[in-house]
Specification:
With 237 residues, the chain is α/β, with parallel strands linked by helices. Helix content is 36%, strand content 22%.
């Protein structure tokens, strides 16, 4: 049984992570951290989590925690993952992994240097439907694939995560937030890697961030192309 601690216990942890841990057979949620100790203790009582910490570092240094799930805002991922690795803990990091490729490479190098596992919660590649599609494509059931499209949208302006429209914290618009799911799912189902990217978007009038971006990607092996879109404006998902 792997004892996990959630570094940054917020809305995502409440809605997605806690229900997942309750169903898990080989992992258990034993600790959480929030910026205020009383709020951490309150969440721990509410969700029956044994340990509460007022800092991520205290959680990472706890001998009662085997692995750390980083669920802090996007701009914090790089530093929080590096901290957990420095404390000798395997890490599962929420997507997006970081704000740019340089940060991602630094995190990967740190994990390799420490000899510790580092994963990113790109969950769609673990869905049964994605595996069925991958298998059907591999066996040629749909013929020569030349185009694929994925979309992911939600009510961004009224989202309960108040930091999601703050570029300094979220790090980018919908493609960084949920478009990464589209891109990773297509990489997995097509079993191919992106060779070229073209992206475009429209600026949101309130935040200045990209509200309706799209990315067109060409894949390497057969030059198939796909289009991924993210939307955090007023469109329903």
């Amino acid at each position: 049984m792997v004892r996990f601690g959630i570094f940054g216990f917020g809305l995502h942890a409440v809605k997605r992570l806690v229900p997942g841990f309750r169903r898990a057979q080989k992992a258990r949620l034993v600790a959480l951290s929030r910026r205020e100790l009383e709020r951490a203790r309150s969440s721990a009582r509410e969700f029956d989590v044994p340990l509460a910490f007022a800092s991520g570092e205290a959680l990472c240094r706890s001998p009662e925690v085997d692995a750390v799930l980083v669920a802090t805002p996007n701009a914090c991922h790089r530093d929080d993952v590096l901290l957990a690795l420095q404390c000798g803990k395997p890490v599962l990091c929420e997507k997006p992994m970081a704000l740019n490729a340089g940060q991602c490479r630094e995190m990967i190098a740190a994990a390799r240097g420490a000899g510790l596992p580092l994963g990113v919660a790109q969950v769609f590649r673990f869905c049964e439907s994605a595996h069925r599609i991958r298998a059907r494509l591999a066996e040629g059931a749909v013929g020569n694939l030349v185009f694929a499209r994925a979309e992911f949208s939600y009510q961004g302006r009224r989202h309960p995560r108040p930091w999601i429209n703050d570029a300094a914290v979220a790090g980018g618009g919908p493609i960084l937030d949920v478009g990464v799911h589209c891109i990773d799912a297509l990489r997995f189902m097509l079993n191919d890697e992106v060779a070229a990217v073209h992206a475009a978007g429209v600026a949101d009038s309130e935040t200045g961030d990209a509200a309706n971006p799209s990315a067109s990607m060409t894949y390497g092996e057969d030059n198939d192309s796909d289009e991924s879109e993210g939307n955090n404006g007023d469109a329903d998902s």
